[in-house]
Design goal:
Blueprint: H1 2-28, E1 46-49, E2 54-56, E3 65-70, H2 77-92, E4 100-105, H3 113-120, E5 127-131, H4 134-143, E6 148-152, E7 158-162, E8 166-169, E9 175-179, H5 185-197
Parallel strand pairs: 3-4, 4-5
Antiparallel strand pairs: 1-2, 1-5, 3-8, 6-7, 8-9
Length: 198
């Protein structure tokens, strides 16, 4: 009995230390995305929502936000990321408060508002889409240190290579870390919980 009690307390202690370590890492993390230091969501842009309505940086003001870049013809990473972020937000339930998520197209030539709206519609309760002109999308991606590379295919079409991480930003517009592609589900959930509280 004593050994069981000791094992339970040891497990609780290890779990608590892991959570504290994760909180410390996320609060100390500073991205090296530009020479000016950490970017903020206040960086100006003028693009389009999947609904066709204009959207600017004002949509992000004062709310914890998850941002990820992708495109509708992405074969695996983008649909998996959409599903995972939407599932995580569902699991947060009422605890998610004002957390919001945006899927930003890196292929605006093909991803018109109509195409993007159709693509994200299964996740529309949780995720909003952003597209626009190529220059505006490229500038926004560059501001966040997102790698985007248009690659020609043998059949004359093209694909887009891009960073797969989800960027996490607190309600003050400060970068607070990332969720890696296929990151451990519980770890990702705790990261979202953290930006809600900051």
């Amino acid at each position: 009995m004593r050994a069981l009690r000791y094992s339970l307390w040891a497990g609780v202690a290890v779990a608590a230390l892991l959570v504290l370590a994760m909180v410390w890492v996320m609060t100390q993390q500073r991205p090296q995305l530009s020479g000016d230091g950490a970017p903020t969501l206040g960086a100006p842009f003028a693009l389009l929502e999947a609904t066709g309505e204009p959207i600017t940086e004002a949509a992000f003001a004062g709310r914890p936000t998850a941002l990820f870049f992708g495109f509708t013809q992405c074969p695996e990473v983008c649909p998996v990321s959409l599903y995972e972020v939407s599932t995580l937000m569902d699991e947060l339930g009422v605890g998610r408060r004002d957390l919001q998520a945006f899927f930003i197209s890196v292929d605006p030539e093909r991803d018109t508002p109509e195409v993007l709206e159709s693509y994200i519609s299964p996740f529309a309760d949780n995720i909003r889409g952003i597209t626009g002109d190529v220059e505006g999308i490229n500038a926004l991606a560059k501001a966040w240190g997102i790698h985007v590379n248009k690659l020609p295919l043998a059949d004359g079409d093209y694909t887009v290579d891009h960073t797969a991480s989800v960027i996490l930003v607190d309600r003050q517009g400060k970068f607070r870390g990332t969720i890696a592609y296929r990151e451990n589900h519980q770890t990702a959930l705790e990261k979202l919980r953290l930006i809600i509280t900051l």
